[in-house]
Amino acid sequence: MISGMPTFTREEIKHLGDLARIALTDQEADRLKGELNVIADSITKVQEVAGGDVPPTANPIPLEAYLRPDEAEEPLTQEAALSGAPVTESGMFVAPRILGEE
Amino acid sequence: MSAQEELVKQSASDMAAQLRSGQVSSRELVQAHLDVIEAAEPSIDAFLQVSADQALEQADAFDQHLAHEGAEGLPELAGVPIAIKDMIVTKGIPTTAASKILEGWVPPYDATVIKKLKAAGMPILGKTNLDEFAQGSSTEHSAFKTTHNPWDTERVPGGSGGGSASAVGAFEAPLALGTDTGGSIRQPGSLTGTVGVKPTYGGVSRFGAIAMASSLDQIGPVSRSVLDAALLQEVIGGYDRRDSTSIPKPVPPLAQAARQGQNRDLKGLKVGLVKELGGEGYQPGVEARFNEAVSLLESMGAEVVQVSCPHFPYALAAYYIIMPSEVSSNLARYDGMRYGLRVMPPEGVPQTAANMMAATREAGFGDEVKRRIILGIYALSAGYYDAWYGSAQKVRTLVIRDFEKAFEQADVLVSPTSPTTAFRFGEKMDDPLAMYLNDVATIPANLAGTPAMSIPAGLSDDGLPVGFQFFAPQMRDEVMYRPAAALEAALEEQWGGPISKKLSTPWLDGLAQDSTK
Description:
The complex is a heterodimer of chains A (about 100) and B (about 525).
Chain A: H1 10-19, H2 26-43, H3 46-49, H4 78-82, E1 88-89, E2 92-93
Antiparallel strand pairs in A: 1-2
Helix pairs in contact in A: 1-2
Chain B: H1 3-8, H2 12-20, H3 26-44, E1 47-50, H4 52-69, E2 82-85, H5 112-119, E3 124-128, H6 162-169, E4 175-179, H7 186-192, E5 195-198, E6 219-223, H8 226-236, H9 254-261, E7 270-274, H10 284-299, E8 303-307, H11 315-330, H12 353-364, H13 367-379, H14 386-409, E9 412-416, H15 432-436, H16 443-448, E10 452-459, E11 465-471, H17 478-495
Parallel strand pairs in B: 2-3, 2-4, 7-8, 7-9
Antiparallel strand pairs in B: 1-3, 4-6, 5-6, 5-10, 9-11, 10-11
Helix pairs in contact in B: 3-4, 8-9, 9-17, 11-13, 11-14
């Protein structure tokens, strides 16, 4: 069990930015580093009381899963679904290429 | 006072009564509020979007309906206009979450709460400002504008729902909707002298509410009276199969509870003072108003006991792990592919989808949103998940148990809503931790899914409003409406009217002297 959060470095922040798909600038990474270290320090507190015998809660009001009635209904039209897209063509979303090479 | 000013200063339920008796039309009500919006916005800046044409159309449709078919089957608030936090999607009206990443987006569908308002004939005046993606406690994190507190326009209205709170507080709208993930309805209510309610988690459908932290988010009412909030929650509440966390039960009798409370008889009610929500960090002026209000509850017959919720001091820390974790996941959808902003990578960088996403999100998100996403990604990453997210979820269990024990000793729990009154612009912007402390008293209710509300408790020694918070057990929202309405009635008797009577409203001075058509 890790106790306490390690101190963030600029490289770690940049790596987290990559994972989050946010192209952070160096200045941003530096500022975030300072802020996150302060925030992280204050929230390690949760580990003080989170004993092994306490069950975790994901949803404060658990509901039983159930099947809804299988009724057909009108979905969004193709036009409506595409209405906010940055680029479309022939009724489709246009994405930049997925792979790095041609 | 002009006729128009007199009209907009009424409660929503009084406006509704005038609509039914034919003293005023829905069009006149909408027009009066549009006039106030025009006059107030230069100093308040509560709205990101005013939907005047749609609102007038909806008003005309309601007036027609009332003339031909009467009001039967319609809720009490039918025909009364409302403003909507720009975190809730509205078909045909731009919805931005106050983020550049959604600038100009026009949703192709309505949130369930919007459908319900439309079915109730309640015209939508526009979309109100907020901290970007509802992340903040001052509305200063909006990408578009800063909203001012009507009590002192040099100060913040709280957040994230500062726009809805200021709009209602400044008489630009009689009612509004907010969303509350850690206090975003109640804390602005506290800072602007308005009423704000976070219903039980699952009590109001969130279909069409832009997701921030899904295990915490809840839509709720913003108003100037407890009864108005109850009536509005009855309109928007109830089961919706489009929200998998929606509680499959009818809305409890909220307005009835509020009306009962107005009799100011609280004999038999046990009120629990939460020991941990007070003392250090709470301004003396806030505690003074709070204690006076507790005495008023006692004078109406309530029995006051002290309860201890020993894990509440850990709630803020747990929240700042759970919330960013869920934020990092929910905001992954803003990827420049299907809607919203797309920014291609700079020249020299491969023009791939992944680089487009990184460039889009770098340009589209503001500082606070980035901070939370990065923290959330970290808290959820392999090797840290158990120590962080797992521990926070355990604290959540402990907070729920604290509530359960406290509700064995008391019917409702009470605390100040916010430790301070409204602060100045910029005061906490460079110190995220100081900003986060605003929500120390509101967060426990989100973690536990319990309903909670803030009502005005008077003005502090700085002349700014103080909020009084009630908590009720899960799915028992009516339990807090009764004492809240009683306290409101008792305070208003002392003040000689609602707290807003003490508010100077220079923006209303220029309104036309005659509001007829």
